[in-house]
Amino acid sequence: MDDNLIINFTPTGMIPTKEMTPHVPISVSEIVEDVHKAHEIGITMVHLHARDPISQVPTYHKEIYGQIIEGIRKYAPELVLCVSLSGRDFSEFEKRSAPLLLEGNLKPDMGSLTLSSLNFNKTASMNAPSMIAKLAGMMKSKGIVPELEAFDIGMINYAKYLIKKELLKPPYYFNLLFGNIACSQANLLHTGVMINDLPENSLWSLAGIGNDQLKMNSLSIAVGGGVRVGIEDNIWYDTSRTKLAHNTDLIKRIHTIAHANGRNIMKPKEFRMKMDLEPGNGNYGRKI
Prior knowledge:
alpha/beta; two-stranded antiparallel sheet; 9 helices; globular
């Protein structure tokens, strides 16, 4: 990995509600504004989830994703934007792939691709081999780069299988997520094994679920990786859970830790170059 730090900002997710924390951005305008504030502090990319404007539950509708992307690109035309294709709430390919149909100035640079099915505390994310292959194939055909989500070592091995099938093209970007109850835990052994097993030409960021977010972010900053950070993975600022986090507070803390480790923040332009992405400013994704 490079000395410059990838900050992958995850402002919303699928789980946090206004009842859980008033600070989670849910409406289009709230998400756009939170990303704006984070962009001014300094981030590399954004992992976006959309919510229904009435019910506030997660939605797959490309029109809402399009409104979010349009709002962000008015002030940050180079920022790398990734749309969620999660299988936690939606099982049909047409729904999960809907945001990939956005084009032109609304085209996402990346789309999330969870590399296997998995259980969370109370729900499951279903990702059948056929679904993974179809999503990967559609992204490849449209020049949208998969944001590869791996919760355990087997998912990394599955990414290598997709590489052999020529459904994934280098360079690759991985989010390695730790601390979920049914997957790799937030310890040095699990972390080292997963990083060591990544394919060549991979950029990667570490994420921690709940209290493990700060731990895994700090570890990754220290060892040269990137970070995935935001209210999606943890609504609390402190591990004692006495203070609810603002996304801006989480981003500022990452900057403080990065500065202490002598690391600068990777700008979107640099990430685009490393990931063979178009330069932004009207041209998005990867050339087909």
